[in-house]
């Protein structure tokens, strides 16, 4: 059973935004819930954010095998990039870390109108076999009216095809930016 949640928030998101503070107040069976925002949340870059996530994993007393990853929007991509190229792969003597699973909230593969800073997040390849091997099971929460990804059916198909993810579509949840998101807690209780 996971003992820790490691959360990567949305673009420009910090620990005080959206449903993250509310989640910390919920009675969930985790010893630790850590929000790891990008070093520059308003203009996150892959390298620095992935490094911050690596550090959060490495510095924790709770092993990765007991850590459940939670990403929100671009935070999902940050986690996918972390899993895709973790530093431990640089040395064959070190084992590849595994995690208890991953929950992607408003996860996407494409964005209808990507801005310049977002394009590297979309274009940089992800090592899908490595992600599947290190963070299964993967659950995804999608909304049927996400303002950034209108074709939610294609998004669902991509998650299922590329990562064998279990996807739940929620009606009218937009980009899951409310101060309370019971859907997230429900998914975490199932996981």
What's this, in brief?
With 191 residues, the protein is an alpha/beta fold. The chain is built from 7 helices and 6 strands, in the order E-H-E-H-E-H-E-H-H-E-H-E-H. The chain has helices spanning 20-25, 46-59, 74-84, 119-123, 128-134, 152-163, 182-190, and strands at 4-8, 32-35, 67-72, 101-105, 138-143, 166-170.
Set out the fold topology:
Layout: E1 4-8, H1 20-25, E2 32-35, H2 46-59, E3 67-72, H3 74-84, E4 101-105, H4 119-123, H5 128-134, E5 138-143, H6 152-163, E6 166-170, H7 182-190
Parallel strand pairs: 1-2, 1-3, 3-4, 4-5, 5-6
Describe the structure.
By secondary structure, the chain is α/β, with parallel strands linked by helices. Helices cover 34% and strands 16% of the residues. The chain is built from seven helices and six strands; from the N terminus they run βαβαβαβααβαβα. β5 (138-143), α6 and β6 form a beta-alpha-beta unit. It starts with a strand and ends with a helix. The relative contact order is 0.17. Mean pLDDT is 92; it is low at 87-94.
List keywords for this structure.
7 helices; globular; alpha/beta; 16% strand; 6 strands; 191 residues; 6-stranded parallel β-sheet; 34% helix
The ordered H/E elements are EHEHEHEHHEHEH
Number of helices: 7
- Uncertain runs are 87-94
State the helicity in percent bands: 25-40%
What is the mean pLDDT? 92
Helix/strand/pairing category: alpha/beta
- Adjacency order of strands in the biggest sheet: 2-1-3-4-5-6
Gyration radius, in Å: 15 Å
Strand proportion: 15-25%
C-alpha termini separation: 9 Å
């Amino acid at each position: 059973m996971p003992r820790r949640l490691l959360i990567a928030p949305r673009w420009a998101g910090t620990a005080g935004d959206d449903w993250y503070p509310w989640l910390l107040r919920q009675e969930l069976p985790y010893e630790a819930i850590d929000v790891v925002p990008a070093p520059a949340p308003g203009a996150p870059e892959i390298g620095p954010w992935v490094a911050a996530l690596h550090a959060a994993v490495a510095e924790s007393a709770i092993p990765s095998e007991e850590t459940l990853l939670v990403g929100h929007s671009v935070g999902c991509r940050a986690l996918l990039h972390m899993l895709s190229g973790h530093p431990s792969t640089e040395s064959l003597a070190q084992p590849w870390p595994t995690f208890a699973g991953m929950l992607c909230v408003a996860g996407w593969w494409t964005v209808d109108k990507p801005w310049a800073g977002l394009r590297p997040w979309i274009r940089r390849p992800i090592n899908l076999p490595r992600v599947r091997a290190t963070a299964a099971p993967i659950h995804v929460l999608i909304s049927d009216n996400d303002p950034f990804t209108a074709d939610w059916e294609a998004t669902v198909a991509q998650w299922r095809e590329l990562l064998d993810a279990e996807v739940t579509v929620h009606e009218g949840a937009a980009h899951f930016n409310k101060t309370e998101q019971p859907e997230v807690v429900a998914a975490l209780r199932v996981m």
